[in-house]
Design goal:
- By secondary structure, this protein is α/β, with parallel strands linked by helices.
- It has one domain: Rossmann fold (3-Layer(aba) Sandwich), CATH 3.40.50.1010.
- About 50% of the residues lie in helices and about 20% in strands.
- It contains 6 helices and 6 strands.
- Strands 3-2-1-4-5-6 form a 6-stranded mixed beta sheet, sandwiched between helices.
- The radius of gyration is 14 Å and the shape is globular.
- The protein starts with 11 loop residues before the first strand and ends with a strand.
Length: about 140
């Protein structure tokens, strides 16, 4: 893993789940700004999350459709999309976080529990206003 040139510690990275990307628009939360304040510098999204957002953009209406479109644009600007060979989006998120040593950012309770059981550090949006990382 790379080091941050301004500090001697490792560059922190995060794998971002679909629900968090949608909440950025729906709840007006600056997730990436908050993560950067916590020292995160790299953001990853499995390609399955991008596919899921594209399906949501077509199947949803109104504000949720706009949220999916916004999330796709945000991924393009802020994240590195990674192809992960996995059986489903949750497994792709877990595999990517585990193999890269990144924190998994999700608000999915089941996924948070599975990640914790696998020794993956988890972050989530607390009270729909701030990002917390369970370290």
């Amino acid at each position: 893993m790379e080091t941050d040139r301004g500090r001697n510690d490792k560059v922190r990275c995060a794998v971002i789940d679909t629900n968090v990307l949608m909440y950025i628009f729906l709840e007006k939360i600056d997730v990436f700004g908050q993560l950067k304040d916590l020292g995160f510098r790299r953001f990853f999204v499995p390609s399955m999350v991008v596919e899921e957002l594209k399906r949501l953009e077509v199947s949803l209406t109104g504000k949720e459709r706009r949220a999916a479109r916004f999330a796709l644009n945000l991924v393009e600007q802020m994240c590195e999309v990674v192809d992960v060979d996995a059986a489903g989006t949750d497994v792709a998120l877990l595999d990517l976080a585990k193999s890269s040593g990144c924190v998994l950012i999700t608000n999915d309770k089941r996924l948070k529990k599975r990640a914790a059981e696998m020794g993956i550090t988890v972050g989530y949006i607390r009270e729909m206003c701030r990002v917390d990382v369970e370290e």
